[in-house]
Amino acid sequence: MAALLLPLASCDDEPEVGSTLYPESPENYDAKLYINETALPGNQTSLEVVQTPVSLIIPDNEISFYVRLTKPVTTDVTVNVTENPQLAAAYLSDAEALPEGSVQLANTSVTIKAGSTVSEQPITLKVTENEAVKNIASTGVAAISLASNSADIATGANNNTYYVVINKKVTNFKGQSTGELASLNLIPYTGFQATVDGYDASDIADGSTKTEFWYWNSGGYDVIFSFNEATPVKALGYYFASYAGYCPDVVEILTSDDGNTWTSQTGGKVTTSVVPSRKTDIVPFEFYSAITCQYVMLRVYSCFWTSYGSDYDWPAISEVNLYN
Length: 324
What we know:
Layout: H1 2-11, E1 33-34, E2 44-51, E3 56-57, E4 63-65, E5 68-69, E6 77-83, H2 85-91, E7 96-97, E8 103-105, E9 109-112, E10 123-127, H3 131-134, E11 139-149, E12 161-170, E13 173-175, H4 178-182, E14 192-196, E15 199-200, E16 221-240, E17 248-256, E18 262-264, E19 270-271, E20 283-303, H5 304-307, E21 317-323
């Protein structure tokens, strides 16, 4: 029996947690500086800039965040921030890290008053047009980190940086305004031919909404307009056929010089914000810049019935107008 007890007795000699063999780091309860502004993924804001053929459009809104302390201290604490391209590079694997100067900081320091746990004023910044932002291919990231402070207080390891994610959209799609169509010139119907899958679709561009165009192809189709000569196009508008539910609600507009290589002028699919209720209601699409081309394609993806949960996925058009 004594031999059986020896292994058990040896267990009592194992060092305890916190001993030299298993050191335990003491918890540091000193005040720490940190940023905590948003829900998951945390300390991030995203905005979209739009690259049009004529300009870069940047939202004119300020971004701000406060600097905080885990607990108050007895003196005022001035905290400095700086752009941090190194952390920006590590934030998103598929984004470009933006260099210093990519965002415009209105202030680079704030003060947390004695006895308080949050800065009196926020750090405020804006994204402005500059070479770094203009050269973003798809997504860019700027990082603003806590840099130093007047009281030499430690900074929290995980919440010391605020990230600004800039997504660039390249498009010529300006919006949907029937008022703008009124200021443009209607391109004569005799200046182009309309086809769908090689079939004549002249009823879709004859100046009459009474001649409806139906193409029974669930899932959409392409209407191609072939100009007699290269023509500038600034806008397109269509009318629905039969019932409002058949009106196309998701479309894309593309142009081409040769009928083979196409460029999307809407930056991909667009869900219309105009919901027509009468056959005389036009659904407009305007461009920032007129595109001189030989071909225009109206790619129809679905109709409103589909959005309502119906199986009637048969978008139908009675007329299309082209403008310059």
